[in-house]
Amino acid sequence: MDVLAKIPPLRFDRERQAAPQVFEALRELIVSVALEPGMVLPRAELAEHYGISQTPIRDALMRLGEEGLVDIFPQHATVVSRIDIAAALQAHFLRRSIELEILRTLAALPEAAHAALMGRLHAHLRRQAEALQPLDYAALAAADQAFHRELYQAADVEPLWALVRQRSGHVDRLRRLNLPAEGKAQAIVRDHGAIVEALARRDAVAAEAALRKHLSGTLSFVADIRAQYPAFVSG
Length: 235
Description:
Four Helix Bundle (Hemerythrin (Met), subunit A); Arc Repressor Mutant, subunit A; globular; 2 domains; 4 strands; two-stranded parallel sheet; two-stranded antiparallel sheet; mainly alpha; 235 residues
């Protein structure tokens, strides 16, 4: 299939520069594996497709390259990269380390801030449950990210979320490939519920244990992904 057929048109916000918007759109398509490893992203054709010049396309592709999501071969082609297992392991370690510390912080919030956070987290859980009935993988993935971002915001370390996201493209692609596995979607929501229940009790130890369980399965399925999608994975 023509790669451009997999890239929806983009309605640009004229108050923002075009390059970041192209980057965000292409990044989501890559992370969701709508654009598969090995697909070529032709700069000139992308510019025509989006109705903009090649300069913002070049800038967007360079940012994707910095995150390791594309391989850029000067004067030749830009190709969606294979999933780097070593990079995924590093991103997983970074996220787990930060979020364990975040949970300790959130368990000790002042009463008013803690109560407000619980309300927001329960709202996130409701949205996740809605994504299960019927099962909507894209909506669940978005709700999953929103839940974790809420934790960073509540701990007043939201810039660290941007750092984690910048490093997480490879591990996020692994998660997307594994999400359709039987029971995986339901397990994500159950794990989040366990984290919220522990935070509601201000039980930092239980919250950390629930998070470790939640994240422990993140890379346990790499062998299955490698066997099912051998051309997608490296390392």
